[in-house]
Amino acid sequence: MRLRREHRILWRLYGYSARLLKTKLFRTAASNTSFPEVWLLLVQYFERLPGFFWVVQRNSFFTMPEILENKADLELYSPHPEVRGMTTLDRAAFKRTIVVPVLKVKKEVINKLLKSLKHITLHRPGLKRVIDDPKDEDRLVLLDPHKISAEYSLGESEQEILKQFNIDPQVSKYNLELTYDNFKTEEILRAVLPVGQDVTSGFTRIGHIAHLNLRDHQLPYKHLIGQVIIDKNPGITCSVNKINIIDNTYRNFQMEVLAGEANMITKTRENNITYEFDFSKVYWNSRLSTEHGRIIELLKPGDVLFDVFAGVGPFAIPAAKKKCSVFANDLNPESYKWLLHNCKLNKVDKNIKNFNMDGRDFLLGPVKEELTKELPLLTKERKNTLHIVMNLPALAIKFLDVFKHLLDGKPCSTDLLPTVHCYSFSKHDSPAKDVQEWAEVFLGTSLEGRCSTHLVRSVAPNKEMMCISFQIPAEVLFKKQCTHEGKLKSSAGNFRVFQLYTLSQIILEKKKTAFDGFKTRILSAMGLIRVSFSGVIPIC
Ligand SMILES: C[S@@+](CC[C@H](N)C(=O)[O-])C[C@H]1O[C@@H](n2cnc3c(N)ncnc32)[C@H](O)[C@@H]1O
């Protein structure tokens, strides 16, 4: 009775202080006084006022500083408070004793009983749910304090189960020692980093390497975080942190080894294909696996794929596995080296021709040569499709002008024209429209109704990676006589010969839709247009 009364008083006090804290100190709505929410506020506040924390510790909940008894206590599974601020990992310091409910059970029935009580047993990393009772031959089943009532009594359905097994439903308390091994990554980092700071432990995995992207406030703890990631993720033996954004030519990360062996040569699998490479010297992004798969899905055996910025082969190798004929290129000698290696590793070196040159030279050389050879061979019967993949999102779109009048001879029929899949970043409100406009600028023609755009992924809150796919219009790809020639007089009195070509339509469209000054300047710099008093004059 006395205990219940104390409990009620404490609960009232808690509710009152919760509202007080939220409204007076944190200026948030008083209505939400849920335990987790308020607990976090209290912890924050006590950190600021250590004296007050001490009083609360002594007079109310915490009779034994290391033992937490409150069922609803969010901090129940938190490591020893002394680890706060630790920068060099000391695993032993995380040890903590907590009180958990246990059921005493005869060893003969333990397996059957565990199945029925699975929903209330204690689940912690590296912890056995059943332990020997030191007093006799029986076993003790550890129960989850969050799933048992404050009075340590079991629910009706659980009591019914115990009755069937002839087990006493009496729940007792047990002092359980939790060690570093029994805490989850997030619990460890939340205990170490300053209160209230984000403890993101997310990483991408590339074989044995965990690739982190730590924020500034996490940097003082970087080596500890790196080691915890290794400890808690079987198979990971090295953790690295991205140092800066990728802005170098070869798009590889500048990285720092945080913990573990500094071996950057790794092996990973994507869409059932194995890749090996030196992660510090080439580009690899596990987040692109769906996109790689999407493009490969479009290909049929016998199709031709030109991969202009191939990296270590995540488009090229699966395409070759699918019996496509592949031409892969990368400017980075390291990427090229691993591309060759991965072709051998996946036994597709017969289907791939690899190149180590600038993308523009690749398009003007091997691609042009192959298109010239292949296109006349394509007929209604032999209808293999040709695809050109250009995954260098920061720059690829600027390479599209290479297709302008690339091929001599008579244009092939529309359905045989090669399909380009060109990637681009966009920070625009309508990224699809933005990317299409840029592609039109560099191709010098309108793609309206002749392209599709696909959102690959959001790179940052206001930055999308897009893929625009289109068949290169015949009037772009093939050298062609002008359809019309004319003379236009500017209001300055100058005459200029220009071709009445689709480019003029784009310019007019873009003028209508408030074509922004920047793009006009770029066009102008490229010699595609001349801005005069009479407006924008296209120059073909
Ligand atoms: C974003 S990565 C894409 C790699 C691979 N296709 C993928 O999807 O993972 C771009 C690649 O283009 C290569 N690269 C950069 N500039 C290049 C250029 N001018 N010509 C050819 N390759 C280039 C880089 O070395 C890098 O491997």
Automatic annotation (TrEMBL):
Protein name, as recorded: tRNA (guanine(37)-N1)-methyltransferase
Domain SAM-dependent methyltransferase TRM5/TYW2-type: 203-474
Domain of life: Eukaryota
Keywords of the record: Cytoplasm, Methyltransferase, Mitochondrion, Nucleus, S-adenosyl-L-methionine, Transferase, tRNA processing
PROSITE patterns the record matches: SAM_MT_TRM5_TYW2 (PS51684)
Molecular functions (GO terms): tRNA (guanine(37)-N1)-methyltransferase activity
InterPro entries: MeTrfase_TRM5/TYW2, SAM-dependent_MTases_sf, TRM5-TYW2-like_MTfase, TRM5/TYW2-like_N, tRNA_Gua_MeTrfase_euk
Chief location: mitochondrion
Pfam families the UniProt entry points to: TRM5-TYW2_MTfase, TYW2_N_2
Similarity field: Belongs to the TRM5 / TYW2 family. Belongs to the class I-like SAM-binding methyltransferase superfamily. TRM5/TYW2 family.
SUPFAM superfamilies referenced in this protein's UniProt entry, alphabetically: S-adenosyl-L-methionine-dependent methyltransferases
Swiss-Prot/TrEMBL GO biological process terms: mitochondrial tRNA methylation; tRNA N1-guanine methylation
E.C. designation(s): 2.1.1.228
Binding residues annotated for S-adenosyl-L-methionine, in chain numbering: H292, D330, L331, D358, G359, N391
Cell location: Mitochondrion matrix; Nucleus; Cytoplasm
The protein's role, per its UniProt record: Specifically methylates the N1 position of guanosine-37 in various cytoplasmic and mitochondrial tRNAs. Methylation is not dependent on the nature of the nucleoside 5' of the target nucleoside. This is the first step in the biosynthesis of wybutosine (yW), a modified base adjacent to the anticodon of tRNAs and required for accurate decoding.
Subunit structure: Monomer.
Catalytic activity: guanosine(37) in tRNA + S-adenosyl-L-methionine = N(1)-methylguanosine(37) in tRNA + S-adenosyl-L-homocysteine + H(+)
Entry's Gene Ontology cellular component terms: mitochondrial matrix; nucleus
